[in-house]
Design brief:
The structure is a single chain. The chain has 295 residues and is of the alpha/beta class. It has 2 domains: 22-96, Phosphatidylinositol 3-kinase Catalytic Subunit, Chain A, domain 1 (Ubiquitin-like (UB roll)); 109-282, Rossmann fold (3-Layer(aba) Sandwich), CATH 3.40.50.850. 30% of the residues lie in helices and 27% in strands. It contains 8 helices and 12 strands. It has helices at 44-55, 130-147, 158-161, 187-195, 209-222, 239-251, 259-267, 275-284, and strands at residues 2-3, 22-29, 32-39, 63-71, 76-79, 90-100, 112-117, 151-156, 175-179, 201-207, 226-235, 255-257. Strands 1, 2, 3, 4, 5 and 6 form a 6-stranded mixed β-sheet that branches. It has a 6-stranded parallel β-sheet with strand order 9-8-7-10-11-12, with helices on both faces. Strand 4 and strand 5 form a beta hairpin. Helix 7 (259-267) packs antiparallel against helix 8 (275-284). The two termini are 25 Å apart. Belongs to the isochorismatase family.
Length: 295
């Protein structure tokens, strides 16, 4: 879901002041209204997350939305004021705008970041075509370095599952983070995304497709980012799990693509100063494993 930025508006909403650490809020969407609560002082982002948790299976992720607040003084909903923080009981609603957004999938180096997910040593014997996705993942990271694209790397419980495989060179990675959460969207990752101006697209690859990749992708599109999953650099222990995850993600508007398509889209022109280096990178490492026949 790409939610609209909250607009400036006068007025407020709410009834009795709240006590304690949470505030009761009525969340309205379409014909539904569900009471819940948010932490005292919660703002726009937390309200969006709560709407997703309550109505995620009913929200069309290709639409833009605006969050509105019921204002007692006007006896109607108004656009959520800038800087709004929940400090008393209130009623909010999520309103879809009429114009549907088409996901074009355009990539530019200045608005793109790469996410490398859990390419660790202990997964080597279990993940199908692991050697091939290592090779393609390394190609993507080399391309990111050539084009100046930031890279975020995570490792799932490295104490037990080992570090990222030695074949993958993490030189220049913006972050290399341990995690126990399946999604890569950790607080440190959210902070890093906020620090990089203009990030619009995430190129995501690693393991496992139906677990960490899927949960990361869904969280990212929930924050309004466009996600490109690299099919020839993403795998699972089970090809059935991988296939159904990619199909599900494609239906939500996530772009399932290939490493060569990603790299050539990023240079975009034969006259790009890095085109020859990217071309040589593609020619030098193109495994024909049959993995893409399993998409």
């Amino acid at each position: 879901m790409a939610a609209a930025e909250p607009g400036a508006a006068p007025g407020g909403g709410g009834c009795a002041p709240a006590s304690g650490g949470s505030v009761p809020v009525l969340f309205c969407f379409s014909v539904f209204a569900r009471p819940s609560s948010v932490p005292h002082g919660a703002g726009y982002e937390l309200l969006i997350q709560k709407f997703l948790s309550l109505y995620g299976d009913q929200i069309d992720m290709h639409r833009k939305f605006v969050v509105q607040l019921f204002a007692e003084e006007w006896s109607q909903y108004i656009d959520l004021p800038k800087g709004f923080l929940v400090n008393e009981r209130c009623k909010v609603r999520l309103v879809p705008l009429q114009i549907q957004i088409t996901t074009l999938g355009n990539l530019t180096p200045s608005s793109t970041i790469f996410f490398c997910c859990d390419m660790q040593e202990r997964f080597r014997p279990a993940i199908k075509y692991f050697g091939d996705i290592i090779s393609v993942g390394q190609r993507l990271l080399q391309g990111a370095r050539l084009l100046g694209i930031p890279v975020i790397v995570t490792e799932q419980y490295p104490k037990g599952l080992g570090s990222t495989v030695q074949e993958i060179d993490l030189t220049g990675a913006k972050l290399v983070l341990p995690k126990t959460k399946f999604s890569m969207v950790l607080p440190e990752v959210e902070a890093a995304l906020a620090e990089i101006p203009g990030v619009r697209s995430v190129v995501l690859f690693g393991v496992e497709t139906h677990v960490c990749i899927q949960q990361t992708a869904l969280e990212l599109i929930g924050r309004g980012l466009e996600v490109h999953i690299v099919a020839d650099a993403t795998s699972s222990r089970s090809m059935m799990d991988r296939m159904f995850a990619l199909e599900r993600l494609a239906r939500t508007g996530i772009i399932v693509t290939t490493s060569e398509a990603i790299l050539l889209q990023l240079v975009a022109d034969k006259e790009h100063p890095k085109f020859k280096e990217i071309q040589n990178l593609i020619k030098a490492s193109a495994p024909e494993s049959g993995l893409l026949s399993k998409v």
